[in-house]
Amino acid sequence: MKGAMLCLLAAAFGATSALAGEHIEKTVMILAGANAGFQQATYADDGSLKVHFEFNDRGRGPKLDSSYTLDAKGLPVTIALKGVDYLKASVDETFTRSADAMTWKNAAEDEKRALVGPAFFLTLNPVPEEDALLARALLNAPEQQLDLVPAGRASIRKLASLRVSGKPGERDVDLYAISGLSLVPGLIWLDRDQRFFAGYSSWSSLIREGFEDAIPAIAQRQVEEEKRLAAVRAAELTRTLTAPLLIRNVRVFDPPAGEVLEARSVLIDAGRIVSIGPGDVSLLDGVEELDGKGQFLMPGLWDMHVHYSGAADGLLDLASGVTTVRDMANQTDALKGMIDAIEAGQDIGPRIIRAGIIDGPGPFAGPTKVLVDTPEEAIAAVNDYAASGHEQIKIYSSVKPELVPVIVKAAHEKGLRVSGHVPAFMTARQFVEQGADEIQHINMLFLNFMFDKVQDTRTPARFTAVAENGAALDLGSAPVSEFIQLLKNRNIVIDPTVGTFEDMFLNRPGVPSPHAAAIIERLPPTWQRQYRAGTGGLEMKAGQQSLFRDAYQNMVNMIGVLHRSGVTIVAGTDDVAGISLPRELELYVEAGIPPRDVLRIATSGSAEVMRRQDDYGRVAPGFVADLILVDGDPTINMADIRRVRTTIRGDRLYDADALFRAVSIEPTPKR
Fold first, then answer.
1. Rounded to an integer, what distance in angstroms lies between the CA atom of residue 416 and that of residue 667?
2. If residue 423 lies in a helix (H) or strand (E), which one and from where to where?
3. Rounded-to-integer distance, Cα 499 and Cα 67, Å
4. Is the dihedral of CA 135, 140, 144, 146 positive or negative?
């Protein structure tokens, strides 16, 4: 969600120059170690504020200008915001508060509400400075809490302090947590004058200009605090199984067999399945018992395309029944730290398989420091990933086509799989013929047949070209059939992430896509607003709505064609952790894949692709006890996969309802 991202990035108050009557503050944005953008805020003596914010992320990124007037308590009186959002859709928002009412208008909302007490209005497409304004207003509010408009309530609390150095000198700064904007509190650093100093994440940071060298110190102290909070969560929400556990009265589904066995008991011990027997098996001494209440027991789900960020991700995954994920690009050290904490029981999360990203330098390089321009650099990058425990290489869009076979050869020699985006100026067929094992994203298959229209796919053209031309692709044509046969013959795996395109292709202001329909009522108010507003879609020209919709439907249809043709598919989301996977699986059913096959794809099929089929993905003796109890039957109704009640990850047991509540999401209603 954009609001969550901006809360993590936060806002900045670093004064860099001052003129009579105004105060100019500038902050810089660092993305994967490189300068990617900036924000400049100009405060006037009359309380007004003007902000410009922009950054570039592979040709994507917002460019926004906003103006505010504030009252004596720091609450917005007027707001005007214009520009483009992350996907370059137009933004035009206004807000006005009078003595007795508030009115606001944007592409999705046109509302008026009576004014009742102090409240802070949140724009739909905020600049980072807005989070800083909220932080300061909260610090000056009674009990450091405020109502939010249109909905919600925020609070702030201090977590830690630190002294840092930069070109302007030393500063004492404090770490605060703002609750109420997202699933977990957003963390921001303020100086002792309550001015924002920095906002850090392993992906990106905003920091006061001149203090860029302080990011490592900020990061270290913040990570220490995050680890402390994680350890508290883990202790509260994890039940460690220290004795054998007999799960009685369950309906067992083992995906390779494809059958549902009624009235069974499953015995697990030391993190593995010991036996599966009749439901009336006698309880042994020293064995704990869990009444399955006739629920559906199956292997834990796999999400084969994530970018794990810790905090809410781990809780969302396990609450949703996801026990294994494949991370498709991350900051190496940060991800290792998160994995180590999970495995040590100091945090909550799934098993994480690592794929290392490699890109080429240039203006559209991905958010990674691993950029290669020569064969020697490419081989060195592969060797580094192999040495650090990665099992796969993900080639990204700016890699030179001539380096693909170099990377493939080096990776295969180390026993690593190779996948990725199809690099710019290269077709998917060429990518496969050069030795790739897998392709990420269904749009990359469509682009194989649009090389005459778009060759440089480093930019958002890889989305817009498919949106504008995808409906016309005949999935039964000879070129498509021949290409699919090539995929089958080469044993190529496809990671479609089709769900992540649903919002992109279908959303338009005020008309959200079906992507969140099943869960929207359970989400925090700020998230409900974002989803209902229909934000996050591609910019559409007049008359393109049906064209984009038909293109998206053709993408869904392609998944069915691939499956029926014998091409291996894995289920990945590249979206919000945990709660996005059920929609991905529903779309596979819509594509014509039987539900039992879909469940196999998301369990034992993924284990086979990642060479873990001897230990994971089945309900069978000897297999790791990564199991979920579902209140329903997803072999009949895939929507029931949202009704996970219990998740077992080896020797750890979790109550899904408690995990959801810990991230401000209401559990799935009981039947």
1. 39
2. none
3. 36
4. negative
What is the amino acid identity at position 350? P
Length reported for the chain: 671
Q: How far is CA 393 from CA 362, 371, 380, 423, 609, in A?
A: 20, 13, 12, 14, 14
Report whether 608 contacts 598 (CB < 8 A).
no
- Mean pLDDT across 42-59: 90
Q: Residue 63 pairs with which residues in a beta bridge?
A: 54, 84
Q: What is the pLDDT of residues 291-301, one digit of tens each?
A: 999 999 999 99
| Structure tokens given for 582 | 């059920």
| Residue 148 Cα distances to 134, 154, 157, angstroms | 10, 7, 17
Q: Return the pLDDT at 659.
A: 97
pLDDT digits (tens, 9 = 90+) for 507-528: 888 887 788 889 999 999 999 9
User: By the 8 A CB rule, do 602 and 585 touch?
Assistant: yes
Helix, strand or coil, per DSSP, at residue 530: helix
Beta-carbon count within 10 A of 402 CB: 12
pLDDT given for residue 494 in this prediction: 98
Confidence of residue 281 (pLDDT cuts 50, 70, 90): low
130-134, 336-340, 590-594: least confidently modelled range: 130-134
What does the alpha-carbon distance between residue 665 and residue 423 come to, in Å, rounded to a whole number? 38
Quickly list DSSP for 214-278. GHHHHHHHHHHHHHHHHHHHHHHH-EE--S-EEEEEEEEEETTTTEEEEEEEEEEETTEEEEEEE
Per-residue pLDDT at 469 exceeds 90: yes
Sign (positive or negative) of CA dihedral 454, 457, 460, 462:
positive
pLDDT of residue 23: 81
Label residue 185 left, alpha or beta by phi (over 0 means left) and psi (-120 to 50 means alpha).
Answer: beta
Please give the helix or strand (H or E) that residue 603 lies within, else none: none
Residue 334 pLDDT class (50, 70, 90 cuts)? very high
Identify the sign of the CA torsion 402, 403, 406, 411.
negative
| CA count, 13 A, side-chain hemisphere, 330 | 28
Q: Which residue has the tokens 């020699």?
A: 413
Q: Which of 192, 310, 307, 165 is nearest to 663 (CA)?
A: 310
Average pLDDT over residues 336-343: 96
Query: pLDDT tens digits, residue range 420-448?
Result: 999 999 999 999 999 999 999 999 999 99
617: left (phi over 0), alpha (psi -120 to 50) or beta: left
Answer whether residue 138 shows pLDDT above 70.
yes
| CA 271 to each of CA 248, 613, 648, 650: distance values in angstroms, whole numbers, following the listed order | 17, 16, 9, 4
Is residue 429 within 8 A of residue 486, CB to CB? The reply is yes
Query: Are 308 and 572 spatial neighbours (Cβ–Cβ below 8 Å)?
Result: no
CA distance 439 to 494: 5
